[in-house]
């Protein structure tokens, strides 16, 4: 029996980047995608202190400044940035491995990192900016989370204004009023981007086969 010709159409993995000010819900959205096995989460390294609810290796790799600088100097980071006074960076190797296997990689990084990844891998990057429905709601979400000290929350709110101005640099924008609806929007973006002609590998052979098919 001949192999299904459709199965020979493959695709390159996407780099799906979500950015937003802290508290807009992007972390929940990225994690929901990963739970549905729609992508592999890029686990960043950071020098910020671990929050009580966070798990080493799952939310971040928590490292000290010296180790961070050593990784950066050895070119082990695809991108890095200083955010709210701490260093954050994306380890390069897992990204290369995931993309080569044809799976999508999901990133929860800021606009500075987004720029760097876009510059390095322009064909594979899809960017989504998540906005809160209002500033009041953003503040309430940060306070409800209650995992950061009040001065940290104040700093994040001040930075949120600067970060939100970056929405113009992104391919898509989701206003996260309702988490379920936002997640459906995110999945729609991913589905459409996966189907882009340029991302499909082996398509010309498939179409050639279609055209050569003999009908009885
Ligand atoms: P948080 O401390 O709330 O986990 O993250 C603070 C900010 O740092 C968020 O905007 C998050 O997207 C960003 N961030 C997390 N990891 C990285 C990373 O590896 N690189 C960059 N550039 N930003 C990151």
TrEMBL record:
Its EC number is 2.7.4.8. It comes from the Bacteria. Keywords: ATP-binding, Cytoplasm, Kinase, Nucleotide-binding, Transferase. ATP binds at residues 20-27. It comes from Microvirga terrestris. It catalyses: GMP + ATP = GDP + ADP. The keyword Disulfide bond does not apply. Residues 13-191 form the Guanylate kinase-like domain. Essential for recycling GMP and indirectly, cGMP. One of its GO terms (molecular function) is GMP kinase activity. It is an enzyme of class 2 (transferase). NCBIfam families: guanyl_kin (TIGR03263). The keyword RNA-binding does not apply. It is found in: Cytoplasm. This is Guanylate kinase. Belongs to the guanylate kinase family.
């Amino acid at each position: 029996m001949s192999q299904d010709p459709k199965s020979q159409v493959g695709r390159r993995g996407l780099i799906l980047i979500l950015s937003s000010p802290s508290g807009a819900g992007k972390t929940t959205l990225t994690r929901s995608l990963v739970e549905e096995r729609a992508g592999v989460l890029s686990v960043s390294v950071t020098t910020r202190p671990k929050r009580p609810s966070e798990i080493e290796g799952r939310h971040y790799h928590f490292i000290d400044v010296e180790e961070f600088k050593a990784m950066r100097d050895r070119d082990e980071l695809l991108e890095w940035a200083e955010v709210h006074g701490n260093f954050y960076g994306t380890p390069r190797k897992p990204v290369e491995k995931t993309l080569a296997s044809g799976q999508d990689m999901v990133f929860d990084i800021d606009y500075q990192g987004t720029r760097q990844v876009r510059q390095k891998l322009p064909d594979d990057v899809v960017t989504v900016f998540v906005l809160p429905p209002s500033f009041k709601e953003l503040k309430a979400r940060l306070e409800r989370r209650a995992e950061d000290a009040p001065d940290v929350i104040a700093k994040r709110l001040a930075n949120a204004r600067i970060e939100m101005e970056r929405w113009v640099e992104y391919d898509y924008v989701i206003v996260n009023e309702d988490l379920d609806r936002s997640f459906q929007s995110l999945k729609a973006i991913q589905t459409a981007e996966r189907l882009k002609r340029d991302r499909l590998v082996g398509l010309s052979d498939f179409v050639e086969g279609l055209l050569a098919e003999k009908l009885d």
